[in-house]
């Protein structure tokens, strides 16, 4: 996936999504590490599990509609397949393109 498909303000958008979820995975609700956090009891490989990333439900990094974004821990993100219907199935409790209901409202925090 080309980084040029991400909008110039992607870092700000991703940070707003993570902040709005209180740095928790929207699928498993695992608390994730914030930038700069390095608990001494966790090894580097253990810290990677607690890395929060922002997923595009439709796998299009240029589509930053709030209802298309979800904060996911590394484990949950890696469990998704590249089939968008499968992704909706895995995350069905949190978002549905069928009824267009976002799981999170970021307008007050970012836009």
Q: What is the topological layout?
A:
Blueprint: H1 10-20, H2 44-49, E1 52-56, E2 69-73, H3 74-79, H4 84-90
Antiparallel strand pairs: 1-2
Count the domains.
Answer: 1
Strands of the widest sheet, in order across it, are 1-2
Helix content: 25-40%
Number of helices: 4
- By helix and strand content, what is the structural category? alpha+beta
Helix and strand pattern: HHEEHH
Oligomer: single chain
Mean pLDDT: 77
Short description:
The protein has 111 residues and is of the alpha+beta class. The chain has 4 helices and 2 strands; from the N terminus they run H-H-E-E-H-H. The protein has one domain.
How would you characterize the overall build of this protein?
This protein is of the alpha+beta class. It has one domain (3-90). It is 27% helix and 9% strand. The protein is built from four helices and two strands, in the order ααββαα. The chain has helices at 10-20, 44-49, 74-79, 84-90, and strands at residues 52-56, 69-73. The protein has a two-stranded antiparallel sheet. It is globular and about 40 Å long.
